Amino acid sequence: MNPATRPASRASAAETALAGKLAALQDEKVEEWVRLIRYGGTIPLVVERSLSWRITRPIRLAQTALLVLRRDGANRFWATVFYRLRRLVTRK
Description:
4 helices; mainly alpha
């Protein structure tokens, strides 16, 4: 049957099923990414080089800085800033 001539209900049911599968796959990838970030310790190079990782880097750095500042105070905050800067400079 030609897709243009098939009933709309059948097409919408198939589209809904495919959209559900796509959403589930995307959720799996997000959950995997969160697991790597939260429990991984070291981040795999493939994740570090991904576009989403590079785009969200400033946000992650700001969130970490704010968390340290609120939790540990200004001295620990500046120690973390210096540590991260040193790590950035020595990284190849």
